[in-house]
Amino acid sequence: MILCLDVGNSQIFGGVFDSENLELTFRRTSQLRSSSDELGVFFRTVLRENDIDPESINRVAICCVVPDLLYSLRATCQKYFSIEPLILRPGTKTGLKILYRDPREVGADRIADAVGALKLYPERNIIVADFGTATTICAISYKKEFLGGNIIPGLNLSMRALEENTAQLPSVEITPPETAIGRSTIESIQAGLYWSNVGMVRELIKRISEEEFSTEHPVVIGTGGFAQLFNRENLFDKVVPDLILIGLRELVRLNIQE
């Protein structure tokens, strides 16, 4: 079995694959800088509580955008699973041609998303919108070229910016509003966050499609914690919550002889 870990600025999103089947997903905050022992106990407990024997894990794949956690995560894999993890970083075989001016600048999460998207939709042009701490929108061509994209403050980050930098605006629950006009402070913040993201993402998808994929409409995939919030807006052809885990599973296949 393969343990896949997406380590973001807010959460660790994990999953366990048995061959191609995703048997389990789980989340844990990444904002607590935990020791390797704390992480090891957590991972093994989650596996046992979901009827998966920790000893059945024979591969671990990690993509991480929090460098401070990498040392602890690697030590966790070595101590609690007796495994040297596959860590997605420059030099890892991805099957992608990265067209950034400096390919080393591309976040591991964006690469894993792209690999997962091409696994699901080979030989198609693809746009991936990932709603995490930051919202990223990335374009991938049918030639397996990572063309680039956009990085935008995510919904929670935008909300916290309002809360922390204003005297009277509160934190709110992020939910789809019924109307574009809020009739209270909370409703106004909710409507502003929601509809500004709908308009922003729709416009960026439109512009990327026109600039890069004018001859064929790309497959548009929504993923990340907030993607399903926008289901009713028809922004995506498909919402794939586990896209990054699928990408990590595919990276194991590309890099380790099984």
TrEMBL record:
It is found in: Cytoplasm. It comes from the Bacteria. InterPro entries: ATPase_NBD, Type_III_PanK. One of its GO terms (cellular component) is cytoplasm. The lineage of its organism: Bacteria, Pseudomonadati, Pseudomonadota, Gammaproteobacteria, OMG group. GO terms for biological process: coenzyme A biosynthetic process. PANTHER family: TYPE III PANTOTHENATE KINASE. It catalyses: (R)-pantothenate + ATP = (R)-4'-phosphopantothenate + ADP + H(+). This is Type III pantothenate kinase. It comes from OM182 bacterium. Signal peptide: none annotated. NCBIfam families: baf, PRK13321.1. GO terms for molecular function: ATP binding; metal ion binding; pantothenate kinase activity. The gene is coaX. SUPFAM superfamilies: Actin-like ATPase domain. Belongs to the type III pantothenate kinase family. Pathway: Cofactor biosynthesis; coenzyme A biosynthesis; CoA from (R)-pantothenate: step 1/5. Catalyzes the phosphorylation of pantothenate (Pan), the first step in CoA biosynthesis. K(+) binds at D130. A monovalent cation. Ammonium or potassium. Homodimer. ATP binds at D6, V7, G8, N9, S10, Q11, I12, F13, T133. Its cofactor is K(+); NH4(+). Substrate binds at Y100, G107, A108, D109, R110, T185. Keywords: ATP-binding, Coenzyme A biosynthesis, Cytoplasm, Kinase, Metal-binding, Nucleotide-binding, Potassium, Transferase. Its EC number is 2.7.1.33.
